[in-house]
Amino acid sequence: MKTNYEIVDFFAGYSVLEYLEAFSLGKSKIHKLFQNKNIGLNNKLAKRDDILHTGDVLNITSDEVRDYAPLKKKLDIVYEDDYLLIVNKPVNILVYPDGCDKVDSLANVVSYYYQNKGLDYTIKYAHRLDRDTTGLLIFAKDYLTLAAVTKMLADHSLERTYLCLAQGHFINPKGRITAKIGEDRHNSKRKRISKTGKIAITDYEVIKEFKNYSLVKVILQTGRTHQIRVHLSSIGHALLGDELYGGNIQLASRCLLHSARIKMIHPVTKRVLELEKALPYDMAKLID
User: Which residues are catalytic?
Assistant: First the structure.
């Protein structure tokens, strides 16, 4: 596969090497690209110190091929360009299969979509959502874009906003939870608040209260496994349907958590990309 990157004003004056470094691509990967002569500039072989101008086209050749078996299933695409594929993840599906012989994940659905378009992209999910969690999920189409998005997730310059339905009414309608999260020695499927765990920061704001539950907006400042579920449960507000963390299962058959909004600077075009996805039916029904 060959991926073309049209140079925008932001990158004018960068050298080819500086351009690659701006995407946070690893040094060994950059070295290999030049060594294997996989980088071109305006249809000529590119050198490290070649200076880029607005409108130039840098291209990178890759011998990658699709790495997940295709699964024919409808894909709800929210945004797509030559570098990113952002989809709405439905409920009750994994982001990637739990075994190399399995064909039951969103990665397999994306693989079928690429195959249908005649593309040999490997499946590069930039982050994960739990099986029950719905909403916006980012796939990168090339490893340069993936490196940039991964860096944005790590330094929190990519803003992810979630909506959830949590038990009860909050004493503080707006706040920040900073409890560390670690492993639960008694249940490998669970996480728990732990003084020796990893730093985790969750900002929340109550949007609306109902009889015995609340619609809550959550912005993650870190990305720990089950972070929202563990943090809200720790202050007495487990998510509806989240049986693992003590949530009420009478009103919901799954954990009611939705990835509602993404805001980021596009790594290639440098334009602001802001996307939203409305609540799924089961959550919308409970707040109507």
Answer: 130
